Amino acid sequence: MMTRRLVLGAGAAALICGPARAADPVDPLQSISWADMRDQFLEGGPVVFDDRVVLSAPDAAEDALQVPFLADAGAIGPVTRMVVFADLNPIPLILDYRPGALAPLIAARFKIQQATPLRIAARDAQGLWHVAGQWVDAMGGGCTAPALAHGTDDWTAHLGESEARLFDRAGRRRLRVSFRHPMDTGLANGIPAFYIERVELETPDGRRLGDLATFEPVAENPLFTVEIPAALELPGLVVRARDNNGNIFRRQVAL
Amino acid sequence: MIARLAFLVLMLWSGLAQAFDYGLKATPIAPDTYVVIGTTEHFNRKNGGNIVNTGFIVTAAGVVVIDSGPSLQYGRQLKALIAGITSAPVTLVVNTHAHPDHYLGNGAFEGVSIAALAATRQAIVEAPPALLDGIYRLVGDAMAGTQSAPPTETIEPGARDIGGHRLRFLAFDGHTAADLAVLDETTGVLFAGDLAFLDRTPTTPHADIGHWLAAIEALRALDVRLVVPGHGPPAPPPRAFDQTAQYLQWLARTLTEAAGDGLDAAEVMALALPPAFAGLAVAREEFARSVAHLYRGYEAAVLGRQ
C-alpha cells in the first residue's frame, strides 16, 4: 500500500515538476553513479527503495575475487526480474535473473574492484523496481586480476565440471550448483573476456523454469543458489550453462 | 591575522611531519621479561596497526625480541623502549609467523639476526605486494617507510641457552603454515604467537583448524606459568588455550552445519554468534572474514562433483 502511494506520488510530482528525474527517490547509498545505473539497467522504470527486498553481503570484501551475496525478493509478491549490480565496478552488471516458475531468490559471488554500492533491483508484476543495497568496502583489484585458473596448467581439462546438490529449506528446495570456469573479465592484461553468460533452468522435458543472464563480474568457478517453491512439482531439473565462446555445460539434478 | 595563519600552518606541518607515536609500554611479566600489549582492534588509523603483542627478554647475552610489530615506526619505538630499560643491545629478533603485524617492524633492527622457521621465511619473502598496500590503506601515515624486511636466518626447533635463559623453540602449524612458539623454561613464560588468542577473536586467513587444535593440545602439555597470546592479555594457562580451542571448534562446527543446510556464504556471515564469543573483540568482523577464508572448503565437501 505504502509502495503504491509512493509511486502515485512520484507520478503526480512528475506531472507538476516536468522531468520525472526531479521526483526520483533519493538514493540512500548516495552513489554518484545511481542515475546512470538506473538508466542502464532498470530501463528508466519507476523505482522504490524497499527494505523488504533482502540483500545479504559482507560490509567489507575479505577476498576481492569472491564476494558473496544473496538477494531475496520473496516478500514483495511475484517478481519478474532480479538485477544485481555494483555501481562502481568497471563492469557494474553482475547478473539478471528471470525467476519464472522459481522463487525470487538468487545467490552468487562477484569480483570487486573498489569500494562500491551493491544493489538488487527486483521488478514486480506491475513493472515497479524494488531496490535494496549496501556499500561493500574493498581494497579491490578483483576485476583486473587474472583468474586463479591461469596459475595452473590443466584448467581447460576441468572446464565446465559441475557440482550440485539440493537442500531442504523448510519446504522450499534449494539448489546450489557450480561450474568450473575462469570467468575472465577481459580486464586482466592479455586475457580476453571468457565467461558464462547464460544459465537456463529447465524441466527434463525442456520446459523453461528460470533464466539467468550472468556477466563478467561473476566470480571464478561460479556457484549459484536458487530455490524451487514448495508448490512446484518437478521430476527433476536440468541446468544448462553457456559461455561466450559457445561452450555448453549441462547438469541434470534429480529431485 | 596572517601571522596566526602562518603559525597554524606551521603547527599543522610539524604535526604531519612527526612520526606516529605508538605510546608503547613495556609490562614486566617475569624476571627479565616484558610484553608490549597491543589493542584488540583491527588495523586502523588511530592504532597505527598496533593490534599485536610483542615481547622481549633481557638476557646476559643481549635482548631477544619476539615479534617486531606492524610497521617500521613501531619497530623503532620498540627499540627505543628497550633502550630505556637496558643498555644491552638487541641480539636476536624472532618472527613467530608470517603475518604482517608480527614482522613489519623488522626494518628497525638492521644488523641484528632476525630468525624465523623456514616456511615462515619463505612466506614472508613470497608475500604479495598487495598485502603491504592493504595495510597502508587501513593504517595510513603510521606505516610511512615500512617495507618488508624478511628474516635473515632460519630457526631450528629445539632448546637454546641464551645469556642465562633456556629458550625452547617449538614449531607448529595451524594458524599459518608455520607457527613458532617460544617457551622460556627459565621463567615459565610461553610466547604462543597467534596459536593463542585471549578476549580477541582468532583470525584464520591461513588457518588449518585441525592442525591448530592439535598445536594447542601440544602447548597444554608444556610446563607453563604464563601464556602471552599473540593478541589479548597475558594470563596463566589454560585460559587462552581454552578460549581459542573452543572458538575454533565452534567455528568448524558452525561452518559444517551451515554447508550441510545449504546456506550461502552471505547468509553464514550474518548468523548470530553465541554469547560465549559475541563478546570477544571484533567478533562479528572476524567471523565474517573466517567465512570468506574457510567456507568454500566446507561447501566443496557437501556439493557432489559430476
Explain the overall architecture.
- The complex is a heterodimer of chains A (255) and B (306).
- With 255 residues, chain A is mainly β.
- Chain A has a single domain, classed as SoxY domain (Immunoglobulin-like), CATH 2.60.40.
- Helices cover 9% and strands 39% of the residues of chain A.
- Chain A has two helices and 15 strands.
- Chain A has helices at 2-17, 34-41; strands spanning 47-49, 54-56, 67-72, 79-86, 93-98, 105-110, 116-124, 129-136, 162-169, 172-179, 196-202, 208-214, 223-228, 236-243, 248-254.
- In chain A, a hairpin with a 4-residue loop joins strand 14 and strand 15.
- The longest helix of chain A is centred in the N-terminal third of the chain and has 16 residues, at 2-17.
- Chain A is globular and about 50 Å long.
- The relative contact order of chain A is 0.16.
- Residues 1-20 of chain A have low confidence and may be disordered.
- With 306 residues, chain B is of the alpha/beta class.
- Chain B has a single domain (16-239), classed as Metallo-beta-lactamase, Chain A.
- In chain B, 38% of the residues lie in helices and 22% in strands.
- Chain B has helices spanning 2-17, 72-83, 100-103, 118-126, 129-139, 209-220, 239-260, 265-269, 275-278, 283-302, and strands spanning 27-30, 33-36, 54-59, 62-66, 90-94, 113-116, 153-154, 158-162, 165-172, 179-184, 189-197, 226-231, 304-305.
- In chain B, the strands form two sheets. In chain B, strands 1-2-3-4-5-6-7 form a seven-stranded mixed beta sheet.
- The longest helix of chain B has 22 residues, at 239-260.
- Chain B is globular, with a radius of gyration of 21 Å.
- The interface between A and B is medium-sized, with 30 and 26 residues.
